[in-house]
Amino acid sequence: MVIISHPEIETSMVQNFLKASVAPLEDITWHHLDAIDTLDVAAEQALLREHERIVFQFPLYWYAAPASLKAWLDTVLTGQFAFNGRQPLAGKTLGIVVSTGTAAKHFQAGGSEQVTLSEILRPYELVARKLGMVYLPPLTIHQLGYWQETDKQHLVIDYQRYLTQAQFNFDQKLAWFETMLIKKAAEATSPKAQQRITLLSEQLSDKRSELTDLNWQVQLIREEEGEG
Description:
With 228 residues, this protein is of the alpha/beta class. The chain has helices at residues 13-21, 41-50, 67-76, 79-82, 117-120, 122-130, 149-164, 170-187, 191-224, and strands at 2-4, 30-32, 53-59, 93-100, 134-135, 139-142. It folds into 2 domains: 2-164, Rossmann fold; 168-228. The mean pLDDT is 83.
């Protein structure tokens, strides 16, 4: 479930780009907080129970999320819900997708902001830990309006992976691409396109086997040298 906090989403290039990016995916709930007239706390809590990955998505406003997300957190994550004998969100995953109008170089040591995004987003990591959730490294989008088309295409893939990839390691990344290629091959209407996608999937699978063998050899060398 993608929980969006943005008071002007209709005119947001980033939010509309991300929404279009998930159009091919199934089982994604797009939940815009600012579109809710009256918050039904029980319904919001039920949505949290139903989904395994919860993603807060928002632009950075004065080093924080827009007010609707803070109000939602204060209203929905009650002690009665989160800590009444058990933790209903324990084991689920919490992710953050944050966009800024400032270049990435300014959010690092020596940068003009004098603070990193990890520091700014630290409260969400603490919320995840308090609720027993797994916290994902945030997906950050800096100045999307200046990106080249190739970089935007990479963002589509990164965003889809962020929402759907089970774990964030190299093997899971390859497995995700294999799954998507198989799906695309099944959806392709042209036999030539099906053949090309199937070939790409087979090549990716072969490369994964090669990398697995290489990792095994490296581990064996380390053990022989007393580093394993």
